[in-house]
Amino acid sequence: MEYGKELLVSRISQVRDPVQKRLLQDVLVDVFGELLAYSEECYYNLEQKIDQERRDPDIHYSIYTGVCKKDGLDSASRSLFEIPKGLSNEIAEEHPNEISRDFYPAGYLGTLFLACDYMQIRACMEQRHPAQVETDLGGYRTTVALSYTRAWQETFSRLYQQFVNNQRQWHTINCPFLYKFLDITDLEGAVPRDAVIQKVAIDLGELSGCVMDDMALVWNLRQEVFQPKVTVTAAGHQSYYEHQILLEDQNAGYLAMPEGEDLFSVIFSENGLVVRTGKEAHPHLKLLKIEPMNPEKDHTALRFPLQSNVRNLRHADRQAMGQPRFLWTKGEVERMLSAYEVFADFELEDICPDLQGELQALDVNPFIRVHSFLKQKRKIALVLHAKDSQDIFRYEKLFFLLAELQLCTDEYEWTGILR
Fold first, then answer.
1. Which of 330, 337, 346 is nearest to 311 (CA)?
2. Among the four 45, 228, 298, 320, which has the fewest Cβ within 10 Å?
3. Chain Cα centroid distance, residue 256
């Protein structure tokens, strides 16, 4: 195309008649310009078609998480919903804020949100704190301990299990807020179990100003109940029930949750899904729907920016996914991490295989279980520089990136150094 343009320009330069020269210029601009625009449009459509066919298979399974005051929830939100405490608990699903204290271990007094650095939270969890507890039966002085919120930890753990049950590849959920929510436990047993907790005042010293009460954790997931079309199908010497569900929202992700079924299979298609169960036919079937995020249509009063595990696969990333093994070089690691939006908060300084000396253990992800027959694993340290040194979530974001790398290999153990 460019050679044709150069040929026409050279021909025009040889024309002496101004009328003919003007006509040739019009031909060059109009005819050649239209051909060039048409050619570029064809190439663009071809690129879009290829990208559509080779797009990220998990594009509809991105999890967004946020935190807000309970009175800041948007009841009309299409994307963000309060996270239930215990995904499989019926009471938690219907009334997430009305769970009895019997759901928690003995001594549970409540939950607080501590908006401070990870290292400071770890120090708080290792100490014991005096507290004044006000109840409907009176006031009590006791000693309390802080630990990660058990109920929401269980919720996220069950979500990971749902991904496994549906044979969907899952990635680490980037929820730094989860590790700021702490359960308060009465160590002395001074507060009666049947007492209604009205207020818990804990002496945290200089961190007392970081305490936030009545905070809610939100994400873009909710449960929906469908009435499937059920048929009985034979397979070998056994029969199973086939549940066909048509889905109208093509931009959402779905996970099947048939009650009482330990083993089931799910077949995903563009128009819906088929759930095969062996125990019984389900006239009503629960699906966990992952809503597409639309910030413009959501009015949840978030206290901090949303976090997600969204990744953007580029051509090089799609090519690398077909390779039999990963090459653990600095450039390759940076390519892998840069696909995730959260990596924009960091700069990769280096990776250090076989780093000598002991490194502080990091909470990579409590839901990842790595099994290996190797007794001694090689350690690789990821050295990152946080662009914002005041970001209280920088360590939790580092854990997310480490967990994603850990999922790619079983023979190495990843750890992180933040500078």
1. 337
2. 45
3. 18
Task: Report the interhelical angle of 118-126 vs 394-406 (nearest 10°).
Answer: 90
- Look at the block and give the residue holding tokens 């997310």: 400
**110 backbone φψ class: left, alpha, beta (φ>0; ψ -120 to 50):** left
Taking the C-alpha atoms of residue 402 and residue 341, their distance in angstroms, rounded to an integer, is 14
Q: Give strand pairing partners of 333.
A: none
Grouping H, G, I as helix, E, B as strand and the rest as coil, residue 53 is helix
Task: Output the pLDDT for position 387.
Answer: 94
| Degrees to nearest 5, angle at CA 243 with 240 and 247 | 160
In sequence order, what are the residues at sequence separation of 6 or more whose Cβ sits closer than 8 angstroms to the Cβ of residue 354?
378, 379, 380
Both tokens of 128, joined, read 């014991």
Instruction: Identify whether the C-beta of residue 106 lies closer than 8 Å to the C-beta of residue 170.
Output: no
* Rg value, the chain, Cα: 28
Of the pLDDT bands very low, low, confident and very high (cuts 50, 70, 90), residue 3 is: low
- Residue 161's H or E segment, with its range, is helix 150-165
Q: Is 296 left (phi over 0), alpha (psi -120 to 50) or beta?
A: alpha
State the Cα–Cα distance between residues 60 and 255, nearest whole angstrom.
11
- Two tokens at 292? 């597409």
> Rounded to whole angstroms, how far apart are CA atoms 75 and 103?
26
Q: Judge whether 400 and 363 are in contact, CB under 8 Å.
A: no
| DSSP β-bridge partners for residue 226 | 285
The string of pLDDT tens digits covering residues 275-301 is 999 888 999 999 999 999 988 888 999
Helices H, strands E: what count in the chain? 9, 20
The tokens 């779905």 sit on which residue? 254
> What is the rounded distance in angstroms from the CA atom of residue 200 to the CA atom of residue 140?
10
**Cα→Cα distances 17→6, 14, 40, 65, 149, Å:** 20, 9, 33, 70, 85
SS3 category, 387: coil
pTM more than 0.90: no
With beta carbons less than 8 A apart as the criterion, state whether 135 and 191 touch.
yes
Return the ∠ at Cα 188 (arms to 118 and 205), rounded to 5°: 40
Cβ neighbours of 52 (radius 10 Å): 8
For residues 243-262, average pLDDT: 90
Q: Are 338 and 399 in contact (CB under 8 A)?
A: no
Residue type, 305: P
